[in-house]
Design a protein that fits this description.
Layout: E1 4-10, H1 14-24, E2 30-37, H2 44-67, E3 79-82, H3 96-103, H4 115-118, H5 133-139, E4 149-150, H6 155-165, E5 171-176, H7 180-188, H8 190-193, E6 198-202, H9 218-222, H10 224-232, E7 248-251, H11 253-256, E8 260-262, H12 263-276, H13 279-299, E9 303-305, H14 307-316, E10 322-327, E11 329-331, E12 342-344, E13 350-353, E14 356-358, E15 375-380, H15 386-397
Parallel strand pairs: 1-2, 1-5, 2-3, 3-4, 5-6, 6-7, 7-15
Antiparallel strand pairs: 8-9, 10-15, 11-12, 13-14
Bound molecules: calcium ion.
Calcium ion binds near residues 13, 15, 40, 176 and 177.
Length: about 400
């Protein structure tokens, strides 16, 4: 079977580099056409620096595997496009900038917990001019890069380009950061955006507490207005203009939090690779080492929740994971304490007399009407806890 064509929208990010490594190591299942970068864990320029570092590491890893007679892999050559450096409507709605200055943030000042200061030679190429529209057109800087093609267009334009030039309903878009770039594409040209086969978003806390506020998960909180744009594409009333119902799916905290990697699993798995000098294992060891230290400081245990990698895993294992479909989930865009909440009606229906069902109040059309969204959420993978950690590492290295 031909691999699934995907666009990954990302804010690398510790769990993003694990997710991207997992996607790149499985080209027989996933063909990464485009990576678009978003604000989120850090600003978009640092996200780009981290992505280029990962590409450099993968280039060296390819050579290492060849020399050590390990699985040879063609990591592909996706387009990379720079995206939004702030939410659609509000400046720094998530306050991550202040957060970083106070105590470095969960992903550290550089987004990868200081990997650039510990491994300063990660990036050998001056990559930045290639993303400048003027420079690129003058010098054709794109040719200097062997494993990615820099785009001089902004992310949302490049997303629409890919959707326009591929057959309709052949590309799955995966967001493992805030949804700003995707929403900008959807607002600019909804009909072209609707050519996507599916939009899968790591985000939301549907029946559980948030991880950024009591009610909100980070990616949705970082740009709730953008998430709302995407969710609203699933309303029945939109289907006529979009030539069919949009398929939007969430991989929420409800399920990602149970998919973890422990320090012990990482150490056992990576020991041999590190002693042989695997560039990818050494890179991830540096990134994860600090991350596990932070987890111990925060929670007392060296266990890392694999939100983004699990989202890619769900695509790789699309036949075994279980989805719950048709849920009316909406995004709180105005709340003072609930901004970014993924609101889901848990009230259920009341049976007044046998066979006669109603709900007590229905402000907002939760029971029926044009406002209803129809979102799928990932329910179960049959590989949770540390079993997932093993599967993740096998997926990245084997
Ligand atoms: Ca992310």
């Amino acid at each position: 079977m031909a691999p699934e064509k995907i666009i990954i929208d990302s804010d690398p990010g510790v769990d993003d580099v694990l997710a991207l490594s997992l996607a790149f190591n499985n080209p027989e299942k996933l063909e990464v056409l485009l990576i678009t970068l978003s604000h989120g864990n850090v600003g978009v320029e640092l996200c780009l620096k981290n992505l280029v570092a990962l590409f450099s590491v993968l280039e060296n890893e390819r050579e290492f595997r060849r020399q050590n007679e390990l699985k040879e892999v063609d990591f592909g050559k996706p387009v990379v496009a720079l995206g939004a450096n702030k939410p659609m409507l509000k400046e720094h709605a998530h306050g991550e900038v202040d957060f970083i200055e106070e105590w470095e943030g969960f992903h550290g000042v550089d987004g990868l917990n200081g990997v650039h200061s510990r491994l300063p030679d990660l990036i050998q190429t001056d990559y930045r001019p290639a993303f400048d529209p003027v420079t690129t057109s003058l010098s054709n800087g794109a040719s200097a890069f062997s494993n990615f093609t820099p785009s001089a267009s902004p992310a949302h334009v490049e997303i629409l380009n890919q959707l326009r030039t591929n057959d309709p309903k052949t590309i799955t878009i995966v967001a493992i950061g805030p949804c700003t770039n995707l929403a900008m594409a959807a607002l600019e040209d909804p009909e072209t955006f609707a050519r996507a086969k599916r939009v899968v978003i790591m985000g939301g806390a549907v029946r559980v507490s948030g991880n950024q506020t009591p009610r909100a998960e980070f990616n949705i909180y970082a740009d709730p207005d953008a998430a709302a744009v995407l969710f609203n594409l699933t309303q029945k009333a939109r289907a006529a203009t979009l030539r069919g119902q949009m398929d939007v799916a969430l991989v929420p905290l409800d399920v990602t939090s149970n998919h973890t990697l422990t320090r012990n699993t990482w150490r056992e798995f990576s020991m041999d690779l590190i002693s042989k000098g695997s560039p990818l294992a050494l890179f991830l060891d540096s990134v994860l080492g600090k991350t596990f230290e932070k987890m111990v400081a925060l929670t007392g245990t060296a266990i890392f929740g694999c939100h983004d990698p699990f989202t890619i895993y769900a695509l790789l294992e699309s036949k075994t994971v279980e989805w719950e479909t048709g849920l009316d989930i909406r995004v709180e865009t105005n709340g003072i304490w609930t901004r970014g909440e993924t609101v889901f009606d848990t009230r259920g229906v009341v049976e007044l007399t046998p066979g006669q069902k109603t709900i007590i109040r229905d402000n907002g059309g939760w029971f029926s009407g044009d406002l209803k969204n129809s979102i799928s959420i990932l329910k179960d993978s049959k590989a949770d806890g540390d079993a997932f950690g093993h599967k993740l590492l096998e997926g990245i290295f084997l």
